[in-house]
Amino acid sequence: MIVVMKRGATPQEIEHMIQRVRDLGLKPHPIYGTERTVIAAIGEKRDEHRHSLESGPGVAEVVPILAPYKVASREVKPESTVVRAGSLTVGNSYIGMIAGPCSVESEEQMLSTARAVKRAGATALRGGAFKPRTSPYSFQGLKEDGLKILAAARDETGLAVVTEVISASDVDLVAGYADVLQIGARNMQNYHLLETAGASGKPVLLKRGPSATMDELLLAAEYILNAGNPNVMLCERGIRTFEAHTRFTLPLASVPYLHERTHLPVVVDPSHGTGHASLVTPMACAAIAAGADGVIIEVHPDPETALSDGYQSLTFEQFGKAMALCRKMADAMGRQIVVREPGRG
Ligand code: PEP
Ligand code: MN
């Protein structure tokens, strides 16, 4: 149920209604929009209280939320959410370009990549220090040493760091270094991790599980939002289908579909989505054409020797070309790729 406040409702009226919702045993989730404030009232038996809330001061109307996800829904917040984290801005008119290796392998590898992607115009840096690998015998990441390398790369280039956290017990550690916590496809339904990442207060990049539906993705986002963290970016990274010509199947219709359903920004990962370096740039452009708010691309100084996902990683030169094309696509779509100066709104 959403309590829609009138335009110009006073802070006292809003506070009063938040308290009313709480008194009815429901969880209030106020969203302060530019136009008006709405208070989502979450909990069981919420519809029983509709009429009593309707008569509150400053209330325009009380309407049921039809979607199974509530706080993530566009019904609750019609205007698009913009997520800002250090140099990164994602959402509405801004497109974030997140680039870097699959895994942090060494200081030299990470710093050279950070410099190259910055030069090409990336707006944030990616790199996994904790790697969820299909095989326990594969490289598992440098862990805290990798986080320190990422922080050094941020210090030098100013690029915000996006890095994965794979366990709730590592959230504090990773949040101590990262600007954005990435929750990977394998962990999309690890609800304890979602809640813990939500409570950390750091922006979260939530990747779609390879067999998760759109509703499941949005309900996973809801766990993070309900922990009081509004800064969630959804990421379409491809799903498992019968098709074997690509590593996963990248359904770009997810982007406009999600934009209809949710105010949260949508990032596309054409690297995991295709699994082939040669397909990454065309699909990055296609993602922007479909309205993506960000693209996350794997880049490596020498893809052939990468410890993970080399076959889908771009060289520095290829990434430079990808950026040039993505910029043209962004222009065509009336969107901007900008490196934000942290501290500015
Ligand atoms: C990654 O970004 O390197 C990664 C492991 O992605 P996903 O969780 O989408 O497989
Ligand atoms: Mn990878």
Q: Can you put this structure into words, describing what you see?
A:
The longest helix has 17 residues, at 316-332. The chain has two domains: 2-63, 2-Layer Sandwich (Alpha-Beta Plaits); 83-332, Alpha-Beta Barrel (TIM Barrel). It has eleven helices and 14 strands. The strands form three sheets. Strands 7-8-9-10-11-12-13-14 form an eight-stranded parallel barrel, surrounded by six helices. A four-stranded antiparallel beta sheet has the order 2-3-1-4. Strand 9, helix 5 and strand 10 form a beta-alpha-beta unit. It has helices spanning 11-23, 50-54, 107-120, 144-157, 171-175, 191-200, 214-226, 254-261, 270-274, 277-289, 316-332, and strands at residues 2-5, 27-32, 37-42, 59-63, 83-85, 88-90, 96-100, 124-126, 160-164, 180-183, 204-207, 232-236, 266-268, 294-298. The model has no long low-confidence stretch (mean pLDDT 95). It is α/β, with parallel strands linked by helices and 345 residues long. The site of manganese (II) ion has 5 residues, from loops.
